Amino acid sequence: MLGAIIALLGFSACGEELCMYGTPSGEYEISGLVYGDDNEKLDGAMVTTSMRDTIYTSEGKYTIKSPERTFPINKIEVKAEKSGYKDQTKEVTLEYSGGKGSWYEGKAEAVQDFNLQKSE
Predict the structure, then answer these.
(1) Alpha carbons within 13 A on the beta-carbon side of 56
(2) Spatial distance between the Cα atoms of 105 and 115, rounded to a whole number of angstroms
(3) For residue 82, how many other CB atoms are within 10 A of its CB?
(4) Nearest 5 degrees, angle CA 71-CA 20-CA 104?
(5) Domains of the chain
(6) Pairing of strands 46-49, 75-81
(7) Continuous segment of H or E residues that includes residue 5
């Protein structure tokens, strides 16, 4: 009862800091190019992440966007593969910044290129 009265009067236990509650969330976007060993861009290469995102390159380019309000992650594995080439996996570090005015929301952008070698 006393807590409700204090809350109604505008007092909080956070002092001057704004109190916020909720699950942290964020969005990420990873983009880049996929090249073959001849430095030509590979069209139709499959790029996947450990978060189950999958996209195919168009003219060697790819962009993977997270669904909105994803729990923010710090590292994500990205794998590029194409028939006739050896798969390549790289770990991408995501650093969140900005947000929609809240401490628990943010966006990260990263660029990761791949250079696939032909299979023997």
Answers:
(1) 5
(2) 33
(3) 22
(4) 25
(5) 20-115 (2.60.130.10)
(6) antiparallel
(7) helix 2-8
